[in-house]
Design goal:
Number of strands: 3
Helix content: over 70%
Structural class: mainly alpha
Shape: rod-shaped
Strand order of the largest sheet: 1-2-3
Distance between the termini: 162 Å
Strand content: under 5%
């Protein structure tokens, strides 16, 4: 028993040292774990900051890329706009030169027309009646009245029993305004009448129709209808194939006089200049030559 007590007393300090060492080791291990956890937390925070910095740099790079692309688009659009402005300036200069040339030609033609001898009766006819007031009906009275007003020739409607040629001084040949019309509706010559010109020549029905068609297109053109210009040229070519040369010359002279009168009227009234002046020039150009030159 004494030996056992002696050994226990001898090993007691050693056990205390071992216990202290174990406690110290546990404390150190715990402190190391805490230190490692702190380092890991610090590393995690650093990684998050690095990620945010990388995202910011990527967003900034994207903004710079978009800004560069927008700047390039603006530079391209500006270049196109400058090119367009340059083209417009050249076109404007060209149109201005053409306008000045046209104005000079217009002034020269106006001076030429003013210097030409014009029948004063055209001025009276032009001022007393507007083209808009001219009759356009298809009945016999309207056709004959229009034929008389537009052409201004002396003619008469006489029975077929009358010889083809009559004396121009005969009472049967009177101005159209004083005629008593007896023809059937829709036909100025009718079934029982024919038309006689101022010098007593009978006008065939086909010739009368061609002249009336020519009258309609010419005066529609002078009234400002742009489509009537081409129709007048076609009607003029057709008429000079079917109508007597002297009657065509009378019609051509009358058209030229009316076109000159319309030109002078357009010069006096600016509101009619665009609508009617160029139409008058077209008619003058068409009828300035003899029929065979059309």
């Amino acid at each position: 028993m004494s030996d056992t007590s002696t050994d226990s007393a001898t090993h007691e300090p050693l056990r205390a040292v071992i216990a202290d060492a174990a406690a110290a080791d546990a404390h150190w291990s715990e402190s190391q774990h805490e230190l490692i956890n702190g380092v890991e937390e610090t590393l995690r925070q650093l990684e998050e900051q690095i990620g945010r910095i990388a995202e910011g740099e990527s967003a900034e790079e994207q903004r710079r890329h978009e800004a560069d692309a927008h700047r390039r688009r603006l530079e391209h659009d500006l270049k196109l706009a400058r090119t367009r402005v340059h083209d417009l300036e050249e076109a404007l200069q060209q149109r201005t030169e053409e306008l000045l040339k046209a104005q000079a030609a217009n002034n020269a033609l106006a001076a030429e027309l003013q210097a030409a001898e014009i029948d004063p009766s055209d001025e009276v006819a032009e001022s007393s009646a507007s083209p808009a007031e001219e009759p356009h009906g298809d009945d016999e009275a309207s056709v004959t009245e229009r034929f008389a007003k537009l052409r201004g020739d002396k003619m008469s409607i006489v029975p077929y029993a009358t010889p083809a040629r009559v004396d121009p001084k005969s009472p049967m040949v009177a101005t159209s305004d004083n005629l008593i019309h007896t023809a059937h509706p829709g036909s100025p010559a009718g079934a029982v009448c024919h038309v006689v010109s101022a010098d007593g020549r009978a006008i065939p029905e086909r010739s009368l129709e061609e002249i009336e068609r020519l009258d309609d297109t010419v005066f529609a053109a002078l009234a400002g209808d742009p489509g009537a210009l081409d129709a007048a040229a076609v009607a003029w070519r057709q008429a000079h194939q079917a109508v007597d040369r002297r009657l065509l010359d009378e019609a051509r002279t009358h058209y030229v006089r009316r076109a000159r009168s319309r030109w002078r009227r357009a010069q006096r009234k600016p509101e009619e200049r665009i609508a009617h002046a160029f139409a008058a020039l077209e008619i003058l150009g068409l009828f300035g030559e003899r029929p065979e030159a059309a």
